[in-house]
Specification:
single chain, mainly beta, 8 strands
């Protein structure tokens, strides 16, 4: 069984160390490509995983990300493809709703050209009920989790 080495709290803490603009929200911190290659080299209990998060649908006025996650050696066969909608909920907190994609194999590698999704019909998305991640500001960035065992 694969270990989930890219949990949201760890990712958010890592992103906060990137030196991106002062006091960015979680959406800005999440955009980019990330890898656990160095961790897998230093500790054989971890796999080399890559994570790509690209902003899509900029014209919508909402904070949407296309997300692709794969083993480092199998970039052309991601094991997770999702869309995230990141929204402020008040008091500096955020909610990242998770959406599954029908026919996701059609979108492999499209994080490289996010404008590709401008013609995509959002009705093909399926919200993963109970899988939203709730994020709160911490001293080092953001920390978050789903609600209990909803997902």
């Amino acid at each position: 069984m694969l270990k989930s080495i890219l949990s949201f709290p760890i990712l958010i803490a890592l992103f906060a160390c990137n030196g991106v603009k002062k006091d960015p929200g979680p959406f800005e911190i999440m955009i980019g490509s990330f890898s656990s290659e160095q961790q897998s080299i230093e500790d054989s209990n971890y796999y080399h995983i890559s994570l790509h998060m690209a902003q899509v649908w900029k014209q919508s006025g909402q904070n949407w990300l296309y997300v692709e996650q794969a083993l480092g050696s199998m970039q052309d066969k991601p094991y997770r493809q999702r869309f995230y909608l990141v929204e402020e909920t008040g008091d500096g907190s955020y909610k990242s709703s998770v959406y599954a994609i029908k026919n996701d194999s059609l979108f492999i590698g499209k994080w490289k050209t996010p404008e590709y999704f401008d013609a995509f019909d959002q009705s093909l998305l399926e919200e993963r009920e109970g899988c939203a991640v709730f994020l709160n500001k911490t001293e080092t960035g953001y920390s978050g989790s789903t609600n209990e065992r909803d997902c």
